[in-house]
Amino acid sequence: MASVLCEICGNELEPGKGRCPHCGTPCTPGQPGTAGPPHRVINLERGMPLVRQALDRLDAAIATAGHEGVRALTLIHGYGSSGTGGAIREAVRHQLQFYRLQGRIREIVPGEELAGRSRRGRQFLRRFPFLAGHRDLNRANPGITLIIL
Hints:
This protein is α+β, with helices and mostly antiparallel strands. It has helices at 51-68, 87-102, 119-127; strands at residues 39-43, 72-76, 107-110, 144-148. The protein has 2 domains: 1-34, no CATH class; 39-148, Ribosomal Protein S8, Chain: A, domain 1. The chain has 3 helices and 4 strands; from the N terminus they run βαβαβαβ. It is globular and about 50 Å long.
């Protein structure tokens, strides 16, 4: 029997339950989920690409992840050598806002806000418990961004 996943947060549902225990969304029974890995790390700065190349990698990574059933991506874009935020970081975050408005992604969590101690962080981890072991949780890392597809 295929597992049933919540359409909003992507977590596995208990059979016969009408509401997701993670995000509280009412769920329709009988919607089998895809069996992809829940999380993947994408290094957008590998090889020191130009901004346009990093954005092309971002676009390809989101498309591939969506087809493979990945629910969350950690994007490594770096912080920039100037100490004030790099061009790739700024362009990626701007593009992610656009994708969110388009409906291509559901949520954006900047690395500096990825904390289980904050109210938002606790709510986020309740909805996506598979991210409780994330390597950058509680590190305030401005060189990454986590997205939920």
